[in-house]
Amino acid sequence: MVKINIQPHDLVVFASTALVIHEETPDWVAALLNKPRLTAVCRRASLHDELLPIGLRGKDRSQRFACWVPVKAVEQHIQPFELLDTHFQKNICSNHQHYFVVQHYQAIYPFLCENHIGIGGSLGFELATGIGTVKETSDLDLIWYADEPFSQSEAKTMLTNLSFKNEIPDCQVITSKGGFSLKEYATSETFLMKTIQGPILTKEGW
Predict the structure, then answer these.
(1) What is the average per-residue pLDDT within 183-189?
(2) Which stretch of DSSP H or E encloses residue 105?
(3) Strand blocks (E) in the chain
(4) pTM for the full model?
(5) Is 56 exposed, middle or buried (0-12, 13-18, 19+ CB in 10 A)?
């Protein structure tokens, strides 16, 4: 059993037989259940009876399925910033190297390492599993763990450093209160904060 301190956007690996499903499964989920082990993304919801809220993903962007897995069944726990470790880089499919999202990631990789910024979305899943989930149209999703407050001016500078060929990634800032968009925080006095209790409009991220 791994540590219980699992956060939204983290990836967990477990035996497919451990899944707890409360509704009828679509065909693509039923096909996944034939695999001995699955990797899923932790959702932003509370633990219930030691069940971890997770989301399965298929090959298409529309294929997302919410379900649960017992915390004690989790065999491996991967945080988004851990995907920067060199041994995960080989998991990017060779025929995806020319995709813009991969080129964007590789261009800013040193900056991500320096600033404890993790990888989410389809690229994060591909880095973790080696499953080819990245598309030519995929965006770069980043997860920034920011324990200390920063100003709007600093947020704008960060967006500039994260950009590649004028493309700004979707960067979620994670604090003790929840998560919010770096771009929205940089450009608006009030921004949407995602919390376990649900989304709220706020002026304070910490």
Answers:
(1) 96
(2) helix 100-114
(3) 11-15, 37-42, 51-57, 64-70, 76-78, 117-119, 141-145, 170-175, 178-181, 191-195, 198-202
(4) 0.91
(5) buried
